[in-house]
């Protein structure tokens, strides 16, 4: 969330937390940058699952089908939704003549 609001990278955020923890540089905390990145990836994935409506899926996350989180593009043609079926197109074109 902070990366979207402050436009700060994860590395800048991590170094800021390290400086706030101990600014003298004598006793630096152990490096947890990789853990921070892993946590950020997990958070983004959970937000994606929630936004796609799969958060309360009866199965586990591992049981989800590939593409389950994909959002259908309303501008792209989908037969039967925003594009007539081929048979309907043929009937319409024949009735015009």
From TrEMBL:
Protein name, per record: CxC2-like cysteine cluster KDZ transposase-associated domain-containing protein
Organism, scientific name: Suillus discolor
């Amino acid at each position: 969330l902070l990366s979207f609001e402050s436009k700060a990278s994860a590395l800048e955020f991590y170094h800021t937390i390290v400086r706030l923890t101990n600014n003298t540089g004598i006793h630096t905390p152990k490096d947890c940058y990789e853990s921070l990145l892993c946590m950020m990836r997990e958070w983004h994935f959970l937000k994606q699952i929630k936004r796609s409506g799969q958060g309360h899926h009866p199965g586990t996350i591992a049981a989800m089908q590939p593409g389950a989180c994909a959002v259908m593009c309303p501008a792209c043609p989908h037969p039967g939704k925003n594009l007539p079926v081929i048979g309907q197109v043929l009937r319409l074109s024949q009735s015009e003549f």
